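Hi all, a correction to my earlier message: I attached the wrong file for DASH complex subunit DAD1. Here's the right sequence:
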Amino acid sequence: MDEETNFFERERDRLAREITTGFEELLSSSNALNRKLEEVLGMTREYETIASLWHSFYQLMRESGKQDTASEDTAPGLPGTGGHVVAGMKQSTTKDSS
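and the right structure:
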């Protein structure tokens, strides 16, 4: 019976060591996974900042383009092209009825 008890205790200790080793590996793997997830989240925040910056730039350029076309519509034309308006005078759009 002593041999069976010794065998049982040795086998129990061996299995306990295997389980302990398995839990240590699991813990180190989950720690590595957590570090990778934190890196990914950090990169995502960096991309959000960059995306926000580019969106602001896009909006600024878009508004700038609208202002340029609006100023072209109201700005006087070049002399000699027929679009020049003398200050204080407006071009007549009425036709001669002769």
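Sorry for the mix-up. The mean pLDDT is 80.
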